[in-house]
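thread: overnight batch results

M.L. [08:02]
morning all. the overnight job finished for the chain we discussed friday. pasting input first so we're all looking at the same thing
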Amino acid sequence: MRYNGVMTKPDLNLLVTLDVLLAEASVARAAERLRLSPSAMSRALARLRQVTGDPLLVRAGRGLVPTPRALALRERVGQLVDDAEAVLRPAEMLDLSQLARTFTLRTSEGFVENFGPALLRRIGADAPGARLRFLPKPNRESGALRDGSVDLETGVIGLSTGPEVRAQALFRDRFIGVVRSGHPLIDTPVTASRYAGGRHVLVSRRGLERGPIDDALEKLGLERQVVTTVGGFSAALALARGSDLIASVPERHSGNLRAGMHSFALPFPVPEVTVSMLWHPRLDADPAQRWLRMCVREVCLAERADRHPDTDPCP
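M.L. [08:03]
and the structure it wrote out:
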């Protein structure tokens, strides 16, 4: 909004005044509802006319009638005032039995397969009317959290994660090797040299030619032969299941995907990764969002206890 070429902020209090004026179509009645004097309300109407560039209410006989612009604004203004009042109203207690809401989760590959069933059971038991929508996570950008199209994310925090994003660790994951049942590699103990000497499938969402495992092997003076690169764990495991390729994937994110295959600890140290859940700070205090985050954390902790009873959970 400009006055004499200078940008000014609109007076949002005028929305309440406009809402009442349009509802009453009377300066006197509107003044009474807002506990103002008729002269103060007349001045407010004059200001509204200046701001909107429209008369809004015009004389018709002994009363006032709305202009076409006022009629077009009436519903929008009323909704804006209702929304503002809802924002300023104290939060109500969350009634999970009445919660009818769809939550969108953007997750790294393997999360749905390994944690999705338990999470759906937990959500359904607490809030039968709630729904989950899972989206793939092709990158670590935080734009979807920022614009509200995603409620919650899981994954590893990266350099592209927005600094304002809230995060809570869920668990640590380690890379393991996976081959088909009967693979010749598992006839004898797997050493770093035997591992590097095999044919490998590399997982890289960005199409990179090497990763942390290659860095670890390089320190030992070894190099593995990567014959193909895929964008996700499930594709890597599918190729390994039907060939002699070796797939190296995060253990916890691939638990259900590698059923029936042979898994082994990598015979050299590779840094673990910490998987976190991430959300935008505007959702901190929302009762339904807090409940959702609690469900995700408890499901991950429960799965960890079932599969790794001797391992401490992330703090």
